[in-house]
């Protein structure tokens, strides 16, 4: 094994740093995170740079079509160019095409919102969502990123990884590193339980009355790992776990088969005559 392969990600970043490129990426990432137009002075202050340092960077990004400058305020915002580039060769394109019509059918049949998530840079990234047709419903922003430890989708995704791979990913999570060894051990036991039963359920994790149920999409060895999660409000006469889980599993299996993440013969609910649920695309 070469010395370079032994270096940590942070060490490699330091060793091979390209300052100009780092500045440009800092600008793009910060604007993406803030989601509002910002002036040159505001960006410089937020990134701890001199205004003159990023002037040429902003001009370059604007000329290449990544940024747009508002003529009245002079504030910069992202254009759709990054989105277009990501869509051109997205590894999730096939997954999304397979998932969206099936998720729409699931949301209409159960009258509950559902979303599809993957792990991206040690965070849970929401790829797609279909909202419940009910007037009161939960909504998760597509493109938003969340903790892999403190979300149902995150724990489902972590449980589908090999133990060594999972623990390596967790070392990059600041909250995880702050936890006591006993808490970490208990969490890993929870992941093992999720892996064994094939789903995760949590109540009131984000707010009182919230109920999340998530299942994995695809086989454990898939190169792309995804989680399909129902997010709902716990209601007195709302659907039970026994009602939602079979439909959720069926939908996840059909998505996996259609996206090529699971052979049809491996699909549990998709081919089971006892599932009692048919997922229909809309």
Describe the structure.
The chain is an alpha+beta fold and 282 residues long. It is built from twelve helices and eight strands. It is 46% helix and 16% strand. The strands form two sheets. Strands 5-4-3-8-7-6 form a six-stranded antiparallel beta sheet, with helices on both faces. α7 runs antiparallel to α12.
Summarize the structure.
The chain is of the alpha+beta class and 282 residues long. It has 12 helices and 8 strands.
Which spans of ≥5 residues are poorly predicted at pLDDT below 50? 269-277
Largest sheet: 6 strands, antiparallel
Residues in helix, %: 40-55%
How many H/I helical runs? 12
Oligomeric state as shown: single chain
Overall form: globular
Distance between the termini: 51 Å
Tally of DSSP β-strands: 8
Strand content: 15-25%
Question: Which strand order do you get reading across the main beta sheet?
Answer: 5-4-3-8-7-6
Class per helix and strand makeup: alpha+beta
Mean model confidence by pLDDT:
84
Helix and strand sequence: HHHHHEEHHEEEHHHHEEEH
